[in-house]
Design goal:
single chain; about 200 residues; alpha/beta; Rossmann fold; six-stranded mixed beta sheet; 8 helices; 6 strands; globular; 2,3-bisphosphoglycerate-dependent phosphoglycerate mutase
């Protein structure tokens, strides 16, 4: 029996809308973000998906997204595990800054390197590799055993913590994962075999 892993990036946040580096800062969802979360919940319900386990980060926008999805799916009274291992990449000194203002301050090329390189962190922050270094051990110890046992696991998290998982699951290169866009509110669904390997990616 295969396990099913559902990865959902949070809906649009207030700082996504304002073009700000967010990281571990804690803005909530916009109206659009609320609707994105609800639509994903509706899509999962329409497919008859009922997860066995629920995980999210320690940040409000991911938690709110999961709550809205569960509401649309008609699911309540479940245990939700929240852990900082699933938090967004920490943008350090960039957090709270408008991305255009950051380009003025540090130069477009430098900001591009911080945003799109795999292992170069911004000042005081994390690279995508750093994010993977905390996200993947959590996946391997907490989520993968459930998937190997044939369970369905729903994770509501963030663009870069999910990129770390997608890179690992799909065995992508750093260049491939940096080119992968993970849209707000968009689900990625995998079937995982009993040996923990990707069996197939499922389109909703």
């Amino acid at each position: 029996m295969t396990g099913t892993l559902i990865l959902v990036r949070h809906g649009q946040s207030e700082w996504n809308l304002k073009n700000l580096f967010t990281g571990w800062r804690n803005p909530d969802l916009t109206e659009k973000g609320v609707e994105e979360a609800r639509e994903t919940g509706k899509a999962l319900k329409a497919k008859g998906i009922v997860p066995d386990y629920y995980y999210t980060s320690a940040l409000r926008r991911a938690q709110h997204t999961l709550d809205l999805m569960l509401e649309e799916m008609g699911i309540d009274n479940v245990t939700i595990t929240r852990n900082i291992a699933l938090n967004e990449r920490d943008y350090g000194d960039l957090a709270g800054l408008n991305k255009d203002d950051a380009r003025v301050k540090w130069g477009e090329e430098q900001v591009h390197i911080w945003r799109r390189s795999y292992d170069v962190p911004p000042p005081g922050g994390e690279s995508l590799k750093d994010t993977a270094d905390r996200t993947l051990p959590y996946y391997e110890t907490e989520l993968l055993p459930l998937l190997k046992a044939g369970k369905t696991v729903l994770v509501a998290a963030h663009g870069n913590s999910l990129r770390a998982l997608v890179k690992y699951i799909e065995d992508l290169t750093p260049e491939q994962i940096l080119a992968r866009e993970i849209g707000t509110g968009q689900p990625t669904v995998y079937e995982i075999s009993t040996d923990g390997k990707l069996e197939r990616r499922v389109e909703l």
